[in-house]
Amino acid sequence: MTVPTTPRAVTRADVARYAGVSTSVVSYVVHDGPRPVAAETAARVREAIRVLGYRPNASAQALRTGSSKMLGLIVPELDNPFWPELAQEVMHAAAARGYDVLLASSDGEAAQERDRLRTLSARQVDGIIVTSIMTRPDLSTVTDPGIPMVLLNTFFEVPQYASIGVDALRGAHDGTTHLIEHGYDSIGLVMGHAGPMELREQGWMRALRDAGRPDGPIARCAFTRQGGYEAGLRMFGDGAGPRSVFVSSDMQAVGVLRALHELGLRAPDDVAIVSFDGSAEADYTTPQLTVVRQPVETMARAAVDRVLGIDAEHPWHRDLVPPRLVLGSSCGCDVRR
Amino acid sequence: MTVPTTPRAVTRADVARYAGVSTSVVSYVVHDGPRPVAAETAARVREAIRVLGYRPNASAQALRTGSSKMLGLIVPELDNPFWPELAQEVMHAAAARGYDVLLASSDGEAAQERDRLRTLSARQVDGIIVTSIMTRPDLSTVTDPGIPMVLLNTFFEVPQYASIGVDALRGAHDGTTHLIEHGYDSIGLVMGHAGPMELREQGWMRALRDAGRPDGPIARCAFTRQGGYEAGLRMFGDGAGPRSVFVSSDMQAVGVLRALHELGLRAPDDVAIVSFDGSAEADYTTPQLTVVRQPVETMARAAVDRVLGIDAEHPWHRDLVPPRLVLGSSCGCDVRR
DNA sequence: CTGAAAGCGCTTACAG
DNA sequence: CTGAAAGCGCTTACAG
Questions:
Q1: Structural class in CATH, domain A65-166+296-321
Q2: Beta strand pairing status for B290-293 and B324-326?
Q3: Which residues are bridge partners to A277 per DSSP?
Q4: Mean pLDDT by 10 residues, chain B (337 residues)
Q5: pTM of the entire structure?
């Protein structure tokens, strides 16, 4: 019985020995340059690579070239499905450019976010994409000034940083206006904890004022299903809630739906709802949510391209991507997607 | 105006120079060994590290030590929230041991899974955790035999591989038995595409036979919300569907609920449901799903510990973790979690 | 207690 | 067209 000795990875030297060439030539073949290699020699090397199953050691390449071909991605959490959907698109966009993604979760805490930033930069990632749940990400202690960074999913411009985000004001305005057009006489707001007059709140308010309507009631809560549930109970529990409501995230809307159900209220018959995000879960709620959809794939691709400097005409630049109203039946439209 | 020169990361040599010691001593201080350092010298070095913001270059460390302090995690996708929930727990468990996670998605395709395995091993990850959606993961072309690997979320033992998974047969048996105990006269199965007589299917069938009941109808479909929706329409569309149903995943159950709603059937009054997985989304469906919950955190921690060899009394070993029935109201229990 | 030196696997300018 | 050599930043046995 052959007991395998502790296995050692195949290195370039093994390939060179097998093919009867120098190690340099192996590299030239692997990268198709920078020096030319005779066709016959190259064929021998390629055969050796195939037979031995050689793959260049990524750590050595990173050390030598200063580029790890990895991108760091910091998300606040993975419990809210919006983030994994965004992460998946970032991974796809990165893979298309030959990059892997080192994923880190900040658990929504600034201290952890700082720590992740430090870790990622120690790992020599070629760029970091930060999707912060916080109003303004705390970037004060970023140590490595050389590492490209973009902020993804910010709703506002952040001075000195490249950022990408949806036009939240317009999205909230569109969603609220849709409820107004349905003719509902009152339109409340369920709003996650964010900065004062966050853009979704502004959009909701402007839409009401543009239509000459009075402000509706506001319930503030966490950006979670549970938060939306509690806000829903508060807003509609006394029987004096508004006829419709704009909700600042799908997850919260899911919670509002549960609250309505428990209270014996029906959507959209008793309370119509439009929410912000457009995640897959919103497609299968009862009733199906009408949403202001963030174009996740577009945003992810823009973030990857920008952090890689492919599109670096301006060092700091904001990409504002347009949201899109996607009709379900929770608004009263009775559309089936 | 000071134009910053292209920034260079702080290296050990910078620290040594600043502190007036050799580079070796810097390493000794950073690792608290393997050579002793005079207290005063160590203090000087630590001060230099702080001032300069030094972090060891992870690529260099990986090259030198052969350990990257990274774990690879391959998931089939991130659209089904079960996977990000599992990924999050893996990231937490890994972080607790000082490891970062390189996440890769196979999109449910064997070819991509092979490719990801190659990529991860080229990156010198210290171990790979594979969560395959496939009945048996195709590991035929794993090149690097030296890299520890564990299979997470397999329902059966895989010869020659460490694997971790829930006792699916027992879980399905428990879930189905619960429906039997409710007294429903017929119990169908909505089953994802898997191997012949997959364990969830076996568990359902055995529970019925153990109770002396006839088999119920089976609808097979994809492991998605859409799949469950279509299966639900097929099973209940003609008005002759069973009184209750066991569903092989939460996502499919979400789809079944939508189908029932469209057909004008109510859960649990017309059709009672129990599903398998226990993801966060299932907590907020209407009605709240009764689920057979996979202990995701336990599984993730076991996978990380095993792949790191912390618990390596047996090279190939199967951890079978127990599922738990968590009552909601979709089974007819009227419990609120 | 401290430091000079080898070597991890690679890329690439340089010499032949 | 091919190869010997330097050096990326680190860890650690070895010498002092």
A1: alpha beta
A2: antiparallel
A3: A293
A4: 54 91 91 84 91 92 92 92 94 93 88 86 91 61 70 86 92 97 96 88 96 94 95 94 96 96 93 96 93 96 90 76 96 82
A5: 0.89
